[in-house]
Protein 1
Amino acid sequence: MGGRRDRRPTIVDVARKAGVSKSLVSLVMRGASNVSEASRQAVLEAAQELGYRPNAMARSLVQQRSFVIGVMVSDLSNPFFIDVIQGATEAAREAGYRALVNTGGRQKDNEEDAIETLVRLQVDGLVLAGSIVDAQFIERVGAEVPTVITNRHSRSKVIDSIVIHDRKGAAMAVDHLVGLGHRKIVHITGGRGAGARNRLNGYRQAMKRHGLEEEIRVVAGAYTEKGGAEGVARLVDEGVEFTAILAPNDLAALGVLEALNARGFRVPEDVSVVGYDDTFLAGLGHIDMTSVRQDARQMGAQAVEMLIERADGQRTTTDHIVLEPTLTIRSSTAPPPH
Amino acid sequence: MGGRRDRRPTIVDVARKAGVSKSLVSLVMRGASNVSEASRQAVLEAAQELGYRPNAMARSLVQQRSFVIGVMVSDLSNPFFIDVIQGATEAAREAGYRALVNTGGRQKDNEEDAIETLVRLQVDGLVLAGSIVDAQFIERVGAEVPTVITNRHSRSKVIDSIVIHDRKGAAMAVDHLVGLGHRKIVHITGGRGAGARNRLNGYRQAMKRHGLEEEIRVVAGAYTEKGGAEGVARLVDEGVEFTAILAPNDLAALGVLEALNARGFRVPEDVSVVGYDDTFLAGLGHIDMTSVRQDARQMGAQAVEMLIERADGQRTTTDHIVLEPTLTIRSSTAPPPH
DNA sequence: TGATTCTGTTGGAACGTTCCAACAAGCGGG
DNA sequence: CCCGCTTGTTGGAACGTTCCAACAGAATCA
């Protein structure tokens, strides 16, 4: 029992057992067409009996191709990225590739390390989802392996990017609120997070467009529940008046809801709240929050498709794709009081 | 620009450029001690200039060691597993390993495929988190690579396991509710999910222990929001009376909260609700739900530590670890009405 | 001085695959 | 009967590393 350390059987072991050459075993394992039925059976049987599994590393070494797509995701606790991963995983599988995920936990060093690990493993392509590492570092990596970066603008000549139009998304949220009659609309920012800057600009521009330049109010926050709650605390401390809040993402919006609740504001009767990303959190019946929708799944899938296109040599130019956001209206927004 | 396809530089290229042998380059890259300062500098410089990165596959091939731990996680949308991943990632990093994640999306075929991929990549160890594949399949894998399975009981002689005492956890929830004065406590099950059976048994036994055998009421559910909501629907349809609900996990508990809310029940005034896993969802200020705590992070970390112990050959026996759950009491539980 | 140890360096053999040129056997056609 | 073609099969070279036994030269020792 526990016959673990007996060293895994190799293609040569199978060949010996089946009484053929290793080349033939290789052919059978890859499903080649011109192999006699007799040999095929003998090989398969021997492989079965020995519990043989091809060594993917040895294979990639000679093929110069691993059929693995590496996905480096900045923050696993953000449901948005989970959807990106699932989209990527599925698309990879459909194309005969596998997606492997590595995370850096929003720490620069660890993210670099995670990326480095994947590159050394000779992945055929790399998806960087919301990474915070330097553009310079990414550029170097991109020179070696096809890379797509998501949720972060890039003008690189080497690296593809795929983002969702953040400025437009924020503007849609403002439009919706103004349409309901709100004027005192404030924005809690996402700090240095990916895309936060553009969401802020979108808010500003939309406010101006509606002639509400005077009403623009912005406080610092972050892409976390805590960031949202602190934003509300700042607003209240500074005595800012508001009837609607645009949060930088859903997680922060949850913090906003909580903080408002703790201070006796009712949502949406007293204050309307809009989230961003439209993750499953926003859809939870108990929360049911209006949120700007980004199709994370599609983003992940598309990123992988772009990589495979490159890996197959079908494309040599660089692409920068911008997807359109939509607005999912739920019950956290309503006309302002009186 | 875009000098991608120039073939990556190898150790030989570096050697040539530095005017030394490839062996020496290898020594420098691995930080060996007895290398002259002059050679070291020359090699590092050449490597830097060429943008050389060691090929991890070639390395593992000869070392018979990849320093990669594979983590196959059943369901990425369950926040519980995210914590397992994070614990595993961190523990691996501390030990000089890397964790790579692959998911099967709760589909048997895909899970098997995900596991197979990792094994072929010659991972040094495998963590199976909440996997639903056959015990037989797992057993075969375990014979080849050190494997730890979590959240699922195992008596295997080959595979380590690490679970949290589900029976005890469910019992703690019942104890808490009974302590508050509840008698009509119902359980919505987790269906065929990992550990669901034991949670059900824990509920039953605890009810008996409190002399509430007559009050035992069980309806089918699942480890999803939908599963929880459907459970409530069944309870109401069947006209079951209850003052407290034990959900199979947090996600389901959210569905329960929503369904109760929709039917005009107030929580906790009319009905108390207890979740399971104590994920960040339960802690969200807006939800603030009592939940049985399982330390997922620690579980992930411990799994990796067990694997590395094995990989280093420090241990040849099989371990089956049972962790203790605790109860996090929040505001979704209170004494029953009147 | 000659033997011994230490320091730094080296080439070739592995690791487990795939690729490729080459071949043997069988077959049909002239 | 020989030629060319097809069908299966093969051994050796490659992939990019690490390992290992072996070395040259300097330093140490008796």
Protein 2
Amino acid sequence: MASTDFAVDITEGRVLRRTPIALTEVRAARQALLEWFRDHARPLPWRRHPRPYAVWISEIMLQQTQVGTVIPYFNRFLRAFPNVRALARARRERVLELWSGLGYYRRSRDLHCAAQIIVRQFGGRFPRSYEAARSLPGVGDYTARSVLSIAYNLPFAVLDGNVARVVSRWRLLRGHVQETRFRQSVELVLEQCLSRRRPGAFNQALMELGQTVCLPRAPRCPVCPLRVGCGAYASGRPESYPEPRPRRRTEVRHLAVAAIRSDSKFALVRGLDESLLPDLWNFPSAFGASRETARRALLDKLSALLSPPPTLPAPRAEIRHSITHRSIRAQIYPVEMAAARRVHGLRWVPAWRLGEVARTGSAAVSALARKVAAAL
DNA sequence: GTCCAGCTTT
DNA sequence: AAAGCTGGAC
């Protein structure tokens, strides 16, 4: 801990000064947090043998994705690619198959590419320096800090949404996660509190506390190790911190989906529509502002693919799905074809690969495609 | 139905 | 500043 009596941080030419947190308070909180983590850390698969490779894979998968969702993906992924060299020499399509259903598919491409860079430029070991780690595709500020602190126990503080929530409540910081000022305030607190001896455990403890105790809407203050000294708890309204971030409104879009079946195979194309899910196999689909415009756009698309184009019957089912700010209403038009002809850009995929079995990574299909298959 | 996870790239 | 995926909580 610095011996100055206030914390100073120079960011973009501005000097921020904040009242320091009393050293005794910092130490008490740090110790309470680390002891809580020692007793309550969940036995997550990437914590069993925390090699840098496993830590890195888990951090990429955990971006925007919940722990419970990640666990089976992580286990399958490490079975398929036990180390960075195995990942580096894998086919891209195979990596995508094992990512199928996890979302944000760009992550898998960047991960694969980064593995090849690690093998070629870093001797097959995840780099130990911030700059080198940051140079890898898919590794931004947060991921570089988390991997280096957890895998190598280097003194980097991490700031994710969980950490921001815990700290804003503990120190009663106003603002929301997207504001630079707010983030700087949180960072100042973290710099004062980070355990220099056990930064990895400290960071994981804060994030775990945010995930399991300091919950957004219903914090479990009675079991929180930071309750003593928590400003939001004292205020009586812990759920009011931090402020909700402004959100872009979601727009409803209609999607027409052709479920073209021949024998027990479905015709799939690469990509969805409007440049969404470009790497994934999907049922031929088209967006529109209404059901009817979507249907017509789908017919246009099918005309370019098949001649003569099939006629579309009445839709058999509607499913709902969300992609970023779009709320998608998908009408499914079942089409039977006599023979599974070879068509350029079309791939016939056995129905069983789209079911629950697909979770084992047998096809690079989106979750949307799986919902469609399940509705048939 | 709304909110939350909540990071990286362009 | 905006876009990208999916699932779960409430």
